[in-house]
Design a protein that fits this description.
Blueprint (H helix, E strand, L loop, with lengths): L3 H5 L13 H14 L3 H16 L5 H12 L5 H44 L3 H29 L3 H15 L5 H17 L8 H9 L26 H26 L4 H15 L4 H15 L5 H12 L8 H12 L7 H27 L3 H5 L2 H30 L10 H15 L5 H17 L1
Helix pairs in contact: 2-5, 3-5, 4-5, 4-9, 5-14, 5-15, 6-13, 6-17, 6-18, 6-19, 7-8, 7-17, 8-17, 10-15, 11-14, 11-15, 12-14, 12-17, 13-14, 14-15, 18-19
Length: about 450
């Protein structure tokens, strides 16, 4: 008798969607992992162009259906979208390959950049590039405030929630998870009692993706009228099995850490903290970094605000999800505070890989557990309204991040030391390039690094 998981495997007797072999799909997901620059917007655009327009693997409406669900989840929506489509095409193995290859190249690239930063940031070339990167990061975060705010603040209620979130995190130091819960409650109450507060992230994403209508693709693999495949039908037994495997993987690594380095180790602290971050950081990488910076810098003292700014700059220059910045934080925390018996490099690598593992394990679980219930989730207006409140709060949280980073970069010696005019001019130019001229973020970051190098040698 087959288990639910074997029915999900490519070796089962169930036929795959015609026209897409597992090998062909794996080749595309591998390619995507190396070319997925531009943050979530750019990555989603690449997938739409390749999967919907060029290859015809999935219809426009089915693609948007998957995107809307991924936008409701905490974590990197582009990586989750790749996992979702891979799961649709080739069940759980397809989802693992799609989501895994989307992240894998950036793991190794960012590990190398993290080492260069940690070991050689005092050299002229590296230090000069970082001088140019930092103001660009301030501009990127400021542009994100305007871009996400324009999409998310569709009512006075949303604006009020956003303002309250900013006040809570900037002036009162309220933890980010509590802000998320309060914003969700406010959104739910607004919908229940007639304030017409509703979730708009999914609708905005659909509008963005539909901004250019395309001709129907002939020979679609997954079209609007495709009957549901067996693995897309909700199954309690299968869900429990997947959830159990996910919990087993998480607890197995935790148990191994406790045995090898002890319960009070930095590795265990990182493991627990970044697991929590993976479940509460709605709103993408900037919300993640806001929460991580609040705790890693202020609570734990693992690294400085300047180092988190540098980490975001490095993450912007690598392919893959921008949330990979947390790997840099995990690396630097363990580099700055090596675990007994390990060199800073070995400690940093372990810290980085542990951080990456607990950041992305929930992403796979969200898709494999939740995707079969997507219709139920999307038809739940109360849930959508709650998530709309969370999205509005994220705008205020990202504004807080912009101010924290701006203060660290523009006033490196505090207000008494005066403004760094090079940083101010570079940040202004980068913001205009992003907001006014829609320049690709990768070129803006590289341009900032080049300016920093020129400044260092002049």
């Amino acid at each position: 008798m087959q288990t639910d998981l074997t029915r999900d495997c490519p070796e089962s007797n169930l036929e795959h969607p015609p026209g897409v072999s597992f090998r062909s799909a794996a080749g595309f997901w591998c390619k995507l992992g190396f070319i997925s620059f531009g943050g979530p917007a750019g990555q989603i655009a690449i997938m739409h162009r390749e999967l919907v327009e060029r290859r015809g693997w999935i219809s426009e409406d089915r693609f948007l259906h998957a995107l809307n669900y991924c936008m409701l989840l905490p974590g990197p929506e582009a990586q989750q979208l790749a996992t979702y489509v891979g799961w649709l095409l080739h069940r759980i193995p397809g989802g693992i390959v799609a989501g895994g290859l989307f992240v894998l190249p950036s793991i190794f690239v960012l590990l190398g950049l993290s080492y260069v930063y940690a070991a050689h940031s005092d050299t002229v070339l590296v230090a000069g590039a970082l001088v140019g990167f930092r103001p660009v990061v301030v501009a990127i975060v400021c542009e994100a405030v305007f871009r996400i705010g324009k999409r998310a603040l569709r009512s006075r209620s949303h604006a009020a929630i956003s303002a309250a979130a900013f006040v809570g995190i900037w002036f009162l130091g309220i933890p980010f998870p509590l802000i998320v819960l309060l914003a969700a409650l406010a959104g739910w109450l607004g919908a229940r009692y007639g304030s017409r507060l509703s979730a708009t992230v999914a609708a905005a994403s659909a509008k963005d993706a539909r901004s250019v209508r395309h001709q129907p693709v002939i020979g679609l693999v997954i079209d609007d009228d495709s009957p549901p495949a067996p693995h897309t039908i909700p199954s309690t037994r299968r869900s429990l099995l997947i959830f159990g495997i996910g919990c087993l993987l998480w607890f197995a690594v935790l148990a191994l850490l406790i045995v090898l380095v002890g319960r009070d180790s930095l590795f265990v602290d990182e493991y627990a903290f970044f697991t929590q971050a993976a479940f509460v950081t709605f709103g993408g990488a900037y919300a993640v970094l806001a929460y991580v910076a609040q705790a890693a810098v202020g609570t734990f003292g693992w690294l400085t605000h300047g180092q988190t700014v540098d980490g975001l700059a490095l993450a912007e220059t690598t392919p893959g999800p921008l949330v990979m910045v947390v790997q840099f934080v995990g690396f630097m925390a363990a580099w700055n505070h090596p675990v007994a018996g390990l060199t800073p490099l070995a400690s940093g690598i372990v810290g980085a890989l542990l951080t990456t593992f607990v950041t992305f394990l929930p992403c796979f679980l969200f898709i494999f557990l939740g995707a079969p219930y997507i219709e139920v989730l999307r038809s739940n207006q109360s849930l959508n309204a709650s998530l709309g409140g969370v999205t509005a709060a994220v705008v205020g949280v990202i504004l807080n991040l912009a101010l924290v980073f701006g203060a660290a970069v523009l006033f490196p010696q505090d207000l008494q030391g005066g403004i760094d005019w090079f940083a101010a001019l570079a940040a202004t130019a980068a913001f205009l390039a992003l907001w006014r001229f829609r320049t690709d973020v990768l070129w803006v970051v590289l341009g900032g690094g080049l300016l920093g190098l020129l400044k260092s040698v002049i």
